[in-house]
Structure formats: C-alpha cells, structure tokens
C-alpha cells in the first residue's frame, strides 16, 4: 500500500493540468473574490471576507484535488486494466481504497498551504501561530471525506461519464456548502440544507478556529458520518467491480 501511495503522489505531481486546477487555481480564485474586500465583518458573521474565504478556498482547492482527481484517475485505470492488474497482487481492496485516499489527500496539502500564504502576504490575514497550524491540519484531515467520495465516483461511473458526474456533485456541494459565498447571505432554505452537507461542516472547521474556538461537535459528527458512508460505498463498489470483472 505504501508503494502505491508513493506511485500515486509522483504521478499526480507530473500532471500539469491537475496541478493547475488543484494547486494554482484556488489561490487565484481567492484573490479574485477577496482581493478587493475590506475588513468589515460579513453580515451575520464575525469574520471578514479575507478570513472567511481563506478557509473556503483552501477547502475548495483540497476538494478539487481529492474529488475530481481521484474519480477521473480511477475511471481511467479501470478502462485501461490497471486495476485488474493490481488485483493480481497481494494488495487487498481496503488497501487500494486507503491508498487512493491517502495519496490524493497528500497532494492536496500544497493547495491548502498556498491559499493560506496568499491570504497572509497579499491580504494581510493575521492569526495566532496555533490557529494557522490548526486550520492547516483540520482542512487536510477533512479532505479525506471527499477523497473517499472521489474513489466511490470513480467506480460508479465510466471514463466518459465520470467527469460530468463528478463536476456536478462538486459544484453543487461547493455552492450549497457555502464555499463560494457566505451562507448568511443566501436564502434560509439553503442554510437549512447546508447544515447537513459535508462541505459546510468542512469549511466550519476552519472558521471556528479563526474565531478562536474548537470546531462544533455537530460538524465533526457530520464529517465522520459522511466519511464512513463514502469509504464504505467505495469499498463496496470496488468489490462489486471485482466480481463483475
């Protein structure tokens, strides 16, 4: 499994298109959204735009790396027969799923770090040292939820269909979860839905730390629940695909 993780990381780092959209695009988007924003608090919140969107875009970038990258890579590997070759090795199904999640989550680290660096240097975001570290760790660990979802989508769809399916899920979760705009300015029905979405709970980890307190237990429980569902679904789809092959 360790060998597969190393292979996946090296392969991802060689993919220039993947690196642009997962590493360069999120900080660029952060500058576009928060570049001209001042330090006035967002309506209904105690955070200003640079603070809020630092966490939102870091989460958005991590999602790009682990969800889109994972789903497309797995669908292509299935079509090319690479997964069938791996089944001939001693690697168990759970090891394959864990390796895919671990490799993609590792590659998401540069995106998170770069967004935070841009926020600090360009927008002058200032936090305590423990807050920077806690946001980085929380955002990285939370990305495992979407890494598991990416694996599941990769086994759910064919190579031709995986991109539109992954993109649709990706954009819907990002919008309804409040990654593109604060939920406080959206209709109440959107806020009610967002409370139970993994993207809202994901971003809430960082915004809670920015506010100087620990993440809410409900948000942690929501993420843990989705992780179990997505990882379990990915494992089941892997076994189903094995039986079909």
Tell me what you see in this structure.
This is ABC transporter permease. InterPro entries: ABC2_TM, ABC_2_transport, Nod_factor_ABC_transporter. It is found in: Membrane. Residues 52-209 form the ABC-2 type transporter transmembrane domain. It is a single chain. This protein is mostly helical and 245 residues long. It has 11 helices and no strands. The protein has helices at 2-13, 16-34, 49-80, 82-86, 93-107, 109-121, 129-156, 162-176, 188-194, 198-210, 217-244. Helix 2 runs parallel beside helix 6, helix 3 (49-80) packs antiparallel against helix 6 (109-121) and helix 6 (109-121) packs antiparallel against helix 7 (129-156). The two termini are 22 Å apart. The model has no long low-confidence stretch (mean pLDDT 83).
Give the key terms.
membrane, ABC_2_transport, ABC transporter permease, globular, 245 residues, ABC2_TM, mainly alpha
- C-alpha-based Rg, rounded: 18 Å
Give the H and E element order: HHHHHHHHHHH
Cα distance, first to last residue?
Answer: 22 Å
Number of strands: 0
The largest sheet is: none
Helix content: over 70%
Number of helices: 11
In round numbers, the mean pLDDT is: 83
- Percentage beta strand: under 5%
Helix/strand-derived class? mainly alpha
Uncertain segments are: none
What characteristic shape results from the CA principal axes? globular
């Amino acid at each position: 499994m360790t060998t597969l993780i190393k292979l996946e990381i090296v392969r991802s780092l060689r993919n220039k298109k993947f690196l642009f959209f997962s590493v360069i695009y999120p900080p660029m988007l952060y500058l576009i959204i928060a570049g001209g924003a001042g330090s006035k608090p967002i309506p209904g919140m105690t955070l200003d735009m640079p603070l809020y969107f630092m966490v939102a875009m870091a989460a958005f970038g991590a999602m790009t790396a682990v969800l889109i990258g994972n789903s497309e890579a797995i669908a292509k590997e299935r079509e090319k027969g690479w997964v069938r070759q791996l089944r001939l090795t001693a690697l168990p199904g759970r090891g394959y799923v864990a390796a895919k999640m671990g490799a993609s989550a590792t590659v998401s680290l540069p995106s998170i770090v770069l967004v935070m660096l841009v926020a600090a240097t360009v927008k002058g975001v200032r936090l305590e040292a423990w807050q920077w570290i806690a946001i980085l760790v929380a955002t990285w660990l939370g990305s495992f939820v979407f890494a598991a979802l990416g694996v599941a989508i990769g086994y759910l769809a064919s190579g031709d269909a995986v991109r539109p399916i992954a993109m649709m899920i990706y954009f819907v979760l990002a919008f309804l979860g409040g990654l593109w705009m604060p939920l406080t300015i959206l209709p109440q029905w959107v806020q009610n839905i967002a409370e139970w979405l993994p993207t809202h709970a994901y971003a809430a980890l960082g915004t809670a730390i920015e506010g100087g307190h620990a993440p809410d237990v409900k948000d942690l429980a929501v993420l843990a629940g989705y992780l179990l569902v997505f990882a379990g679904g990915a494992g089941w789809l892997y076994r189903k695909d094995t039986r079909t092959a």
